[in-house]
Amino acid sequence: MDKVVLGLSGGVDSAVAAHLLRESGLAVYGLYLDNGLPGADAAREAAASLSVPLTITDSREAMEQYVCTPFAEAYLRGETPNPCILCNPAVKFRALLDEAERIGAKYIATGHYARAENGAIYRGQPENDQSYMLCRLTPDEVNALLLPLAPYKKTEVRALAEELGLPVARKIRDVKEALEFSMTLEQRTVDSYNEWARLCAAEDDQITHKLFQDLAKEEEEHLDMFRTEMENMLNYGEQYLALQSIAHSKEITKK
Description:
There is one protein chain. The protein has eight helices and seven strands, in the order βαβαβααβββαβααα. The protein is an alpha/beta fold. The strands form two sheets. A five-stranded parallel beta sheet has the order 3-2-1-4-7, sandwiched between helices. Strands 5-6 form a two-stranded antiparallel ribbon. The radius of gyration is 22 Å and the shape is elongated.
């Protein structure tokens, strides 16, 4: 049975990728890159639920050298770097290939939404294509790469995780429910301010009417920002959190 080393983050994409690879007849070995962010426990939980052996390697030094520092420097120059495009060839895929060589694995794999064919990367499903993240890989690296999520949409992967009863599916469901509850409370605040503004207008109290109008508008803007932030976390997960972490660690916003 051929072996494959899969980048296993503990998120829904890599967990479903592990299942699909195993179903295809491969012996799956997980590799988690510890970059100093929370996530190792989620990777362990996903690996245990799938009966996949997991290796954890410390990538903090490599991340700082090849991703965090170049990202911060580029950002401060007014550029818009993508941390994943920096990380994949310099850190993630180097670690996957090293682990594959160590255990004698024929393939490496990730949970990216893209296609790998004949040494080249092609687009995945338009709704969630991630081929651009892999644009700096070499043909030799791509020839060893399996991308089991290529034909899937993100919604289909989440549905499959639910069907399989993976722990990460339960976490996503819990997060969604919590976010929906929070946004419902926020919306009620907006509605209350608008109702008070209407009542004040009816009483010809223009000053208080304007006050509640402004409060409603401010709360609505806050709600829109909150909604966007939460959608980014759900849709981009690890990549979005990594970006936030880099910005925080380098104090970009202060400069």
